[in-house]
Specification:
Protein Binding, DinI Protein, Chain A, mainly alpha, 6% strand
Length: 184
């Protein structure tokens, strides 16, 4: 009895697997499993991106102005030091050297802290822009029943088979209210 049941299951196995293949992926129906888009291309077209860039440029300009002012002060004091160093008594000479060293240390410290603060400010300014784009990507992916979306920037994905992937640039531009270069 067991051998008969086993023989029957063995005989039906090819038919079961063929039927399962037909149910999961009919040959005549094209179904995209994933999407792809250039994140940077769309990100930089958002109006919020330009606003954040302008705000960042203004902030960076203020930091650069302050660094330049500090450098000019150092150069002025250094020139005064060079002119008067022959006439300074040793204690005043040491005091002026210490002042110059202190100014230089503060300038270097300010530049390092400026870089850190500017990086943090840029990330904070771009965060809402990224959130808007990420939300739109999620919505388009859900509408199209995509499993995932690839970012094609910097040649990260040199080839995508168009039979299984779909470019979601146009739907994203539409969702974000941006004009497509193809539809202009």
């Amino acid at each position: 009895m067991k051998s008969t049941l086993f023989a029957l299951l063995l005989a039906l196995a090819p038919f079961c697997s063929a039927g399962a293949q037909e149910l999961t992926a009919p040959a005549e129906v094209h179904v995209a499993h994933f999407g792809y888009v250039s994140y940077k291309e769309i990100f930089e077209r958002l109006p919020e991106y330009e606003e954040a860039r302008a705000a960042f440029a203004a902030l960076k300009g203020k930091f650069e102005d302050e660094a330049e002012r500090s450098e000019k002060e150092f150069q002025r004091k250094f020139a005064e030091f060079l002119q008067g160093q022959k006439d300074f008594p040793p204690t005043i000479l040491q005091k002026r050297q210490a002042e110059l060293q202190d100014l230089m240390n503060k300038s270097v410290s300010f530049r390092q802290e400026s870089q850190r603060l500017l990086q943090k400010a840029e990330a904070e300014m771009m965060q809402p822009v990224m959130e808007r784009l990420n939300k739109a990507i999620q919505e388009v992916a859900a509408e199209r029943s995509l499993i995932f979306v690839l970012n094609t920037d910097e040649n990260a994905v040199p080839y995508i088979n168009p039979q299984v992937g779909v470019n979601i640039t146009e739907p994203l531009l539409h969702k974000l209210g941006l004009a497509s270069p193809l539809t202009r």
